[in-house]
Write a structure and sequence with these properties.
- There is one protein chain.
- By secondary structure, this protein is an all-alpha fold.
- The chain folds into two domains: about 10-95, no CATH class; about 100-270, Hypothetical protein af1432 (Orthogonal Bundle), CATH 1.10.3210.10.
- About 70% of the residues lie in helices and about 0% in strands.
- The protein is built from 16 helices and no strands.
- The protein is globular, with a radius of gyration of 18 Å.
- The N and C termini lie far apart (about 40 Å).
Length: about 270
């Protein structure tokens, strides 16, 4: 999809989707996609396949035996989670290695798993959109870091954990904020519309704004707020759930129970 012309005028480059991911995206949109086709595609890029296997065999996924092939990984973890690992490494590969970005990628992996697994329990159709939205949520920061690393490094330090303050600094310096840039990258890489909308609105909703009206699949954005609370403000998880649940079309008690169970599942795997 084309990048918003307004962003093009700002001279902030949106990285092109890697070839393997460009081929994987349409496969994921098909209901009849087989595991063999996906594993064969991932294995055409040896570095990417090796990165996927390293990630799958990490403690995060809690597998008892060592996985030797991408097809085995798909069998044990399922298409959504292996696709997300592939997208994670494809996304990281288009940006320069930087210590400042490591916490971003670590949060992305955990957030994606939280959102994807919650969505899988709550909705038969939102699993991949939620997982990819969680994975790409902060990718606009990486875009700006690559664009002007010296100034952006200082912005990250000045804003700390306050993304509202960070977006204010970004607009002052660049004329655009990382949430808008992240949404543009998601759109240009062919992610689902609900994932694009989630990345675009996540900062405001996580800080207490209501879900925007007119969203086609508001659950994905609601899960972003819930995942953020699980990761950064667990004492207020119940309040966050109460704020977003009904607007997302799910009962608060069901969403709260789902969030807690998925959190426990991930903690158990890493122990």
């Amino acid at each position: 999809m084309p990048v918003d012309p307004e962003l093009r005028r700002l001279d902030v480059d949106i990285p092109t989707q890697p070839h393997a991911l460009a081929q994987l995206t349409p496969l994921l949109s098909r209901e009849d996609t087989g595991l063999q086709a996906v594993s064969a595609l991932i294995e055409t890029d040896m570095a990417l396949a090796a990165a996927v296997l390293r990630a799958v065999n990490s403690s995060l996924y809690g597998l008892r035996g060592r996985v030797q092939t991408v097809h085995q990984a798909l069998t044990y973890l399922g298409l959504r989670e292996v696709a997300a690992i592939t997208f994670e490494f494809g996304l990281r590969a288009v940006f320069p290695p930087a210590l400042e970005l490591e916490p971003l990628w670590q949060r992305a992996v955990k957030r994606g798993l939280l959102m994807g697994r919650m969505a899988q329990r709550l909705s038969s159709t939102d699993g991949w959109a939620a997982h990819s939205a969680g994975l790409f949520e902060e990718c606009g920061k990486a875009v700006l870091f690559r664009h002007d690393c010296a100034h952006y490094r200082a912005m990250l330090k000045d804003a700390g954990d306050d993304d509202v303050a960070l977006t204010r600094l970004e607009r002052q310096r660049f004329g655009v904020s990382h949430d808008a840039l992240g949404a543009a990258l998601c759109e240009s890489w062919g992610l689902a519309g609900s994932a694009v909308a989630c990345v675009r609105h996540h900062v405001a909703v996580q800080r207490g704004a209501p879900l925007p009206s007119g969203l086609q699949r508001p659950l994905v954005l609601a899960l972003s707020a819930v995942a953020h609370s699980l990761m950064h403000d667990p004492d207020h998880l119940k309040e966050t759930v109460q704020r977003v649940a009904e607007l997302a079309g799910v009962q608060p008690d069901r969403l709260l129970e789902t969030a807690r169970r998925v959190q426990e599942q991930l903690q158990g795997a890493s122990d």
